[in-house]
Amino acid sequence: MVAKIQNNYWPLSLVLLVILTAIGVSFGISTSAAPSQLANAVTADLAITAPVLYFLVIRRTKVPNLTVVPCFILGLLIAHLVLPPTERGLLTFLTHYILPGIEVLVVLFVGRNVWRFVKALKQNGARNIDRLEVLKESTAAIAGEGLLARLLTTELSIIYYSLFSWGKSERQSDHHFTHYKKNGLGAVIALWILVLAAETFAVHILLMKWGEWAAWIASLSSVYLVLLFIAHYKATRKRQSWIDDTGLHLRYGLSGNVDISLDQVEKIHLTTRTPRDLQQFVKLGHAFESHNVILELKTEIELERMYGKKEGAKAIGLMIDDRELLKEHFS
After folding, report:
1. In the chain, what is the greatest distance between 2 CA atoms, to the nearest angstrom?
2. How far apart (Å, rounded) are the C-alpha atoms in residues 236 and 306?
3. C-alpha angle with apex 128: 188 to 120, nearest 5 degrees?
4. Residue 265 CB neighbour total at 10 angstroms
5. Where would you tag: which of 5, 117, 171, 324 has the fewest CB atoms within 10 A of its CB?
6. Euclidean distance between CA atoms 13 and 223, whole angstroms
7. What does the pLDDT profile of the chain (331 residues) look like in tens digits?
């Protein structure tokens, strides 16, 4: 998000300047000849001027307009902290009458987008069995192609695959390839979860002596990692790669997606080793996962990782259950 507004540092500094100036002025309210008017001016700068300036800065970026609401609430909180209790006329009005109306509008906006997401989910799910692709298309329908959509896609996919997706998917045809039968990923992830569970218990006890909130943050972070491991394992069993006239389409759990045109493939190595002379070699899975196929490419391509992160590669290592059949397609 910061990357999207990095060219707007000067306008953002103006927003910050308005806030800091209002805070500075608030210290003179008690000695002012017109304290009520000065307090109202400070409130207006913090809760109205600053949010409006912030909106003007972000309106042509991919930063969601909805972030103006937290900016408005932050202005109210700062005003509550710096204004004398007897000089909060405008602040009281904004808090009691304007803020509830904004909350209602936010609820309606979120509800509308949830309805649009569910509608898009049904439409996309009817023509695509890859649930991660369905989630990606559905979040794009309500949030565009920006950072917010990528974050939503990843978080929703973790929830879906870890809690709701069960079983495995058999190969749909000779043009489809699975990745879960020979990679030993289940044993590796089970070991990671056991280690994480033991470590979380010990860390939780230690942090409880320092602060209960810190202990629970650490524990919830560990739960999130467990869900992430489980989601990736189950997504690897569910998602399939395929080859068609347009190219090779690799879908490897939650860790990597890439589409490769057939004429980009220079050579296919059926090996579990990594040749030292390969440039820009990356694994489609995580670093701890093994591979039995290496695709050597003629030119650099981009892989899509979790959260929409891009990574360049000229050689890709991955595990394919029927690797001989894949090589036959290129013979």
Report:
1. 89
2. 14
3. 110
4. 17
5. 324
6. 38
7. 444 444 556 667 888 888 999 898 888 888 888 888 899 999 999 999 999 998 888 887 777 777 888 889 999 999 999 898 888 889 989 988 898 888 888 888 777 777 777 776 667 655 566 788 888 877 777 766 777 788 888 998 999 899 888 776 766 667 889 888 888 888 888 998 898 888 888 888 888 877 788 888 888 899 999 999 999 999 999 889 999 888 899 999 999 999 999 899 999 999 988 878 888 899 998 888 889 999 999 999 999 999 889 999 999 999 999 888 888 887 7
With tokens 């017109």, the residue in question is 34
SS3 content of the chain, % helix, strand, coil (to 5): 60, 15, 25
- If you write DSSP's letter for every residue of 71-116 in order, what string do you get? HHHHHHHHHHHHS-TTS-HHHHHIIIIIHHHHHHHHHHHHHHHHHH
**Which amino acid does the sequence have at 45?**
D
Indicate the DSSP class of residue 213: H
Q: Which of 133, 138, 44, 136 is nearest to 89 (CA)?
A: 44
| Paired tokens of 238 | 């569910």
Residue with tokens 């010990």: 202
Domain boundaries, the chain: 2-87, 173-331
In the structure, how many helices (H) and strands (E) does the chain have? 11, 8
187 Cβ neighbours under 8 A, 6+ residues apart: none
Residue 243 Cα to chain centre, angstroms = 28
DSSP letters, 124-159, are: HHTT---HHHHHHHHHHHHHTTSHHHHHHHHHHHHH
Instruction: Determine the Cα–Cα distance for residues 71 and 212; give it in Å rounded to an integer.
Output: 29
